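Appendix B. One record, verbatim.
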Amino acid sequence: MQIIRTRAFARAGLIGNPSDGYHGKTISIIVRNFAAQVVLYEWPKIEIVWSQDEHSRFDSVQELVRDVRLHGYYGGIRLVKATIKRFVDYCHCKGLPLHDRTFSIRYESTIPRQVGLAGSSAIIVATLRALMQFYEVDIPLELQPSLALDVERHELGISAGLQDRVIQVYEGAVYMDFARQRERRDPDFGLAYGVYERLDPARLPPLYLAYSVDVGEPTYVVHNPLRARYEAGEPAVVRAMETFADLTVRFRQAMERGDLTEMNRLLDENFNTRKSICPLNPDHVAMIEAARSTGASAKFAGSGGAIIGICRDEATFAALQQVLRPLGCQVLRPQILP
């Protein structure tokens, strides 16, 4: 019996986020320290197996509430089901024949939940990879992130951008341009996509990543109201998205020059711009301020309880661990290359 195993890794938005959902520009990195894995094999019926994170027995009501806050009411099962459904829709639209064999599928994930490291999209991307392999269907690389995003937007009504899915499909480090004038669209299924360029990870500055699962929150807490303000044309929000895009271009130029000081400054400016338009969780701000007290730069890695920045040396890394540990944070060096 063939057993298909696929993975998709966590990611961190390095610069420009959250402008990916607003026709901006971003640079992201893959974080191989954490991953979602999907296992699929032929089975007499279509079976979606619950993961170890999804259970219905709790020691107390407080534990139940914490579980709902971290995993929602349906956990990752709805992501797997929605991915299967949208994959079939895509194949039917494209006239791609699907054999009639059935399968069992399950997922597991080591990606910390609700901290902004793209755990949900990793489950979708890993599921999509498994389905492509099982049905021997080849979906163009540039369309895979858009199809993964379509799962959340079209099937589940979740507001999100392309950045997470692009980096999880392409891996490594990627520069993304989502400007309206550069947007392309698949003529059949209607998937829109931007321009994606792989960057040399060797040119990246020395980075650290820190997160706390104790202060995580769902992405929609930030993105739903921000989306409404942007679509209403609020000047401050529109200007901020233009600023994020500009910071990304300048960061890429600084990378090519090896200008660590400028990259450090731009990361801090990214967070400052975000703070100017969004009400932020005080616990998340405390993480930023603690990290900056060591001389490191700091910004949100996504929308949750994770931050990223430049850490020049091991002495600074040790200082980061010391100041962030009392806030319940884990601090690590993101692994980008296999």
